[in-house]
Amino acid sequence: MKYFQTAGWCLLFVGPALAYRHFLTCRIPNRGFGTSIVNHCRRLIITHFSSQFFSWSRRIYGFTGSPRVYRCANTAIKFGSKARPYEAETTQYIGRHTSIPVPKIIDVWAAKDGSPVTVLEWVDGERLEDAWPTLSSEEKKSIGQQLREHLDALRALHQPFDGGGWIGSYNKKPISDALLFNDACGPFDSDADFNRFLLSRF
User: Fold this and answer.
1) Could you tell me the pTM of the whole model?
2) Three-state secondary structure along the chain?
C-alpha cells in the first residue's frame, strides 16, 4: 500500500509537470496561427504560470526592455515590449518563397500589453561568433557565400500584393529599424516619402 501511495503522490505532482512541458513543446500543423486546443493550453500556461515557465526554461537572449528569448525543450519562445508583431508572418513568408532555412513558427498571440508572444521551432547549432575563430579560410569563405546567396534570395522577393509597391514590412504594415528609429513608422508609398521621413528625423 505504501508504494501505491508513493506512486499516487508522484503522479499528482509529476503529471501536471509533464503535461506542462508537453503543451509548451508540442508541435501542431500551422494553419494561419489556428487556435487549436494545444495552442490554447500553451497560451494559458505561459500567460498564467509565467514564473514557473521562467524557472523551467533557459534564457538565451535579451535583457530588460528588449525582446527576450527562452528555450524550453524543442521550442524557443520570444516575447517582450520591443518584439514586432509582423516578425512571425515575415518569417513564414520567407520560408514559403525562398530556400533560406528559417525556424518554423508554431504559434503566436498577443500578450496582455499587446506585444506578441511567438513560439518557434528550436534549431540546434553553434553561434557563428563562437565558431568563427576556429574556422579555416575556406570555411569562412563558404559561409560568406551562403550569406550572399541568402541576401540575393531576399532581394529577389516581390511584395505579396499589387498596388504600386511600398516601403514597409510584410503585408504593407509599419517598418522598424533600431539603427534608424525606435518606433515603428510607415509604410511609405514611394522612395521620396521615405527619404522625406528620414530627413525629418534630423
Assistant:
1) 0.68
2) CHHHHHHHHHHHHHHHHHHHHHHHHCCCCCCCCCCCHHHHHHHHHHHHCHHHHHHHCEEEECCCCCCEEEEECCEEEEECCCCCCCHHHHHHHHHHHCCCCCCCEEEEEECCCCCEEEEEECCCCCCHHHHHHHCCHHHHHHHHHHHHHHHHHHHCCCCCCCCCCCECECCCECEEECCCEEEEECCECCHHHHHHHHHHCC
Q: Which residues of 169-202 are buried (b: 16+ CB within 10 A; e: fewer)?
A: bbebbebbeeeeeeebbbbbeeeeebeeeeeeee
For residue 65, pLDDT over 50 is answered with yes
pLDDT in tens, 32-62: 444 567 677 777 766 665 555 565 556 666 6
- CATH fold of 2-121: Phosphorylase Kinase; domain 1 (3.30.200)
Mean pLDDT of the residues in the chain: 75
- φ/ψ of residue 164, rounded to 5: 90, -10
Q: Which three cell numbers stand for residue 24?
A: 509548451
Question: In terms of pLDDT, which residue wins out, 4 or 38?
Answer: 38
Domain ranges of the chain: 2-121, 128-200
